[in-house]
Every structure is written in structure tokens, then in C-alpha cells.
Amino acid sequence: MKQTVTFIPTLRETPADAEVRSHQLLLRAGFIRQNTSGIYSFLPLGKRVLQKVETVIREEMEAANSVEIFMPALQQAELWQESGRWYTYGDELMRLKDRNDREFALGATHEEVITSLLRDEIKSYKKLPLNLFQIQSKFRDEKRPRFGLLRGREFLMKDAYSFHATSESLDETYDVMMQAYKNIFTRLGLNFRAVIADSGAIGGKDNHEFMVLSEIGEDTIAYSDTSSYAANIEMAAVNVTYPVSDETARAMEKVATPGKNTIADIAEFFQTTADKCIKTMVFKADDELVIVLARGDHEVNDVKVKHATGATVVEMATPEEVQHLLDCDIGSLGPINLPGDIRLFADHAVENIVNGIAGANESGYHYKNVTPGKDFTVPAFHDLRFIQEGDASPDGQGTIQFAKGIEVGHIFKLGTTYSIPLKGTFLNDQGKAMPYIMGCYGIGVSRVLAAVAEQFQDDDGFTWPNIVAPYEVHLVPVNVKDDVQRELGEELYALLKNNRYEVLLDDRKERAGVKFTDADLIGLPIRITIGKKAAEGILEVKIRRTGETFEWTRDEVLEKIQQFFKK
Question: Could you tell me the sign of the dihedral formed by the alpha carbons of 150, 153, 154, 157, in that order?
Fold first, then answer.
């Protein structure tokens, strides 16, 4: 492709509203342009990278016996109402009505559509298992789109769905898809980890996220320093044995604590440490208010609260709800004398507190010398807190360290989460109607592009890996007004194209400095400069990733290029 006939609007200045380096470079190098918040156009270079990412995904999906289809983005509300997610998915679901006042959603995901499609077509166990995938735009009304393609309102996604007659069959496909995902991200050159994760709004259980390690990642990964254990911090189990105190439990005493509302305030007031305080919080688990206790130096994990309570949605209770429930301010909450019908959940660390500090459920008052079992009763203790760096690894090997990660893929064992409410059934080998057992496997294709862009760059621009670079070779005649340079550039352009190489020829009438700056910014694997030695048939070659430079003769270009790309 010649640069004079394509569309690569490079920028000299960094856009002020681009927060992270990958977003800045994608804009500056002319790969994308923002239409509005969280919505982008992919320009020719960006589209070519997307297509190459898609090619890797398609090859590995097909190797895993997944077959490509294409489903509608516009989905009727009735399907979402059947599954129940019309009411629980939240504000991220983009909803609209047609001219006949019928309700629809723009597809945030496709579990409902694929299940309704299969329930009308697959009636026998003999047709199972079946694994189908698509690559399509998804829509989510993100409250705060950010980081360019990493969190947008419209994005490209690969989603696959598998249907099974048995759980054993699902397990087999899950393992195959796990390996397919590892193959995809390895081929793309990404530094990633497969981590245990929460299923979120998708539902189901037994699932893994694929995280690209990056300081700009919005997710925290907890991993062992000596084993392969890795989990999203929301799902990392706490495997800690807390020391048993040898203190003698003293009589509980009520103390006025005016203006002391935080754990730090209370610890300082009582001249103690945060681990001696009992943090009391009120959560709304679906429509029920519940009390959750944790040690003062620990942070309550709402995902674990959701699992402990069995709720679908968990969120912090509002100050008004707390006031109505316990008639006190949030800063004075405690586990003493709670209403009899309220459920109480406590983290394991609370069990060994002796002579601790807790709120008195009376604004401006706390109790000291509070001991579980003596002063209040806990029906059962649970793992309710976030794991911390330095904690023992849940697999018993090593200690936990933290890293930031960008989620690029997620695989789930859905089970019958969708097939039961949507009445997706088949006849088993005994002629009995049974619900499909399902799996779900997603990759954020446009997010992968951003993750690769974040990982492969330097001070001057991109350093794309060969497998996804928009073009393989950048031909740069320094002066296109020079007949020798221009003609040699055209000759090499034809030669490489005829040998199936993807070539970008900079035939613009620009200064050499502009051309070289743009070439480094775009970041193709090899740049061949046709300059002052063109008459001698000598070319200057730069390997973009390493910065190495060489001189090649015109006659050896094809052989050298073949060696580099190993075609």
C-alpha cells in the first residue's frame, strides 16, 4: 500500500485526554480516532491489526473444534426477561424501543440469543457437544469509559458457547478452550496469566480470566511467589491460621467516642491497633440487609459476601438504610444487641479477637473489651476479606504477591444457568428431556489490540510483533523527486508484494525527518530506507524492535527478508 492513497493521519502532539501510553500512541500513529466517549473508529492501520488478531483467534478456535457463526447485535427484551437478566444486569445494558414500542437491548453478550437458537435446533444428545463462536461488536453503557480501547462502550469481542449432554463433556471442552486461549495469547507475544476469577453478571461457576500483566491494569492479581497459583484478588481465598490470644477476656465496657468514626480514629482513641478493632458493615444482599464483620486492618470483599449470602447482587447499604435498621451512624456500628432477625456474617480473623473494640450501635459510643462468643454470637465464620500481600498462598506454596493486569479473556462453566430458564433442552440416551450444560468463552479483541500496543512500544512509538504488525515492511525513499530513489522504491515495492509480503511504501513528498518519525511511530518490523546510496544499489535497513541497522544490497533484500520472517 502506498501512503499517498491510504489514510494514516499521524499527530505530532499527544492528545491531552489520552491517559495511557497505548491510547496516546494509537491516536498519534493514526490507528484510531474517537467518535465520542468510549466509542472509536478504527482507521486502516488499526483495522489491519484487528484483522490479524482475529486471524490468530479464528485459527485457534477452529483447531479447538469451534465453528464460526454470526448473531444479531439487536436482541429482543423477551429473551433477557426469560433469563431474568433484563432486571438484574444493571445500567450497563443499553436498552431501546422500536417504532412499535417493543423493547430491545444492544448485545452486551449473547448467552440468551445462542441458547434460544440452539433450543429450536438441537433436540438430541447425538448432536452434542457443539461449540460455536462469533466475532462481533458488543455494547455496554460504561459509567466511566477510560484508557481508550481498554474500557469502551462499543468494542469488538470474540464469544464462544459450548453445549453438552454431560458435565464431563463440558470439563473436556473447558480444558481444550483453556489451552486454545493460552495458545492465542502466547502467539500474540503477550505476558499473561490465567487466573481464578468471579463470574460476575454472566453467571455460572468455575471460571478463569486471562490477564496481561501491566501497570495500567484495572485488576489486581494475587499470585504465589513459588507456585503457579494466580487469582483475581476478588477470588483469592485466604488460607491463614490466626494466632490464638492468651489474653483473659475482660468485662465489656461502654465508652463515649464523640467524633470518632473510622478505624484509625478508634484505634488512636483507645491507644490500640487496627487489628484489635471489629469493623462492622451493612450490606444489601439482593433485597435483604445483612451485617458483616471483619478485623479492622482487613478489607471486606463484596464478592465473597455475595457467595456467603447466596445473593445475586451485593452492595453497600446506604446511610439512610443503616439508620433505619439500627438507628445509629455508620461510624458507631457494632455486633452487640442486633435485631434478632438480621443475618450476621463474620470473617475468620474476627474469631480470635479478645478484648477488642466495636461500635455500640449508638451514635458516638463504642464498647471496649469485646470478645466474640462472650459478648455476641456468630453462627458461622467465613472467608470474607481480600487477601493481602505476604499472606500464605491458598495452595500452601509460598506467599502472595500482587501484580496489575488487563483482562483480555474470560472462560466460564455456565452449567444450566441459561438453559433452564430459557427451556433449552435435549433428549438424552434414555429419551428424557434434559437442560443443556453450557460453557462460555470470551476474548476482548479490541482490548487485545490495546494490550499488545501497551506491551510493544518504546519512546519513539510502536514495536509491533511480526504476527500483528499492520504491514511487515516499511519502504522509505528519502526523496521521491530523485528518480533513482523513486524507481528503486517502486521496484522493491513490486518485488516484495509479488512475494506475498505486506509493504507500506512512503511515497509522500515529505522531509526525511517527517518520514522517519512517522515510521518509528507506526512501528513496522523492518524499515528499508532508500537514500543517497540508491545509485549503488545499497539500502539502509532498521529492525524496529531492536534498533539494529544494517546495509543490504538490492540483490539480497528478498533473501534477507525471508530470513527475518522465516517464510
Answer: positive
- pLDDT of res. 88: 87
Task: Tell which residue, 343, 415, 449, 390, has the closest CA to residue 26.
Answer: 449
The set of cell numbers assigned to 125 is: 444428545
- pLDDT reported for residue 30: 97
Please state, as a whole number, how many other Cβ atoms lie within 10 Å of the Cβ of residue 49: 23
Which residue in this structure is represented by grid cell 516484495?
496
Calculate the CA dihedral of residues 88, 443, 79, 74 and round it to 10 degrees. Answer: 110
Contact 133, 61 (CB under 8 A): yes
Tell me the three cell numbers of residue 554: 538490492
Place of cell 489514510: 7
pLDDT tens digit sequence for 452-510: 999 999 999 999 999 999 999 999 999 999 999 999 999 999 999 999 999 999 999 99
Residue 297 corresponds to which cell in the numbers above? Answer: 486492618
Nearest residue to 333 via CA among 420, 441, 261: 261
Q: Judge whether residue 386 has pLDDT over 60.
A: yes
Longest dimension (CA), the chain: 97
Q: By C-alpha distance, which of 373, 386, 384, 438 is closest to 411?
A: 438
Beta carbons within 10 angstroms of residue 281's beta carbon: 19
Torsion of CA 187, 189, 190, 191, to 10 degrees: 110
Residue 241 has pLDDT above 90, yes or no: no
- Going from the N-terminus, what domains does the chain have, and what CATH number goes with each? 21-237+402-453 (3.30.930.10), 253-382 (3.90.960.10), 471-565 (3.40.50.800)
Q: Is residue 293 a contact partner of residue 345, using CB atoms and an 8 Å limit?
A: yes
Nearest to 480 by CA among 456, 508, 501: 508
Q: What is the pLDDT of residue 190?
A: 96
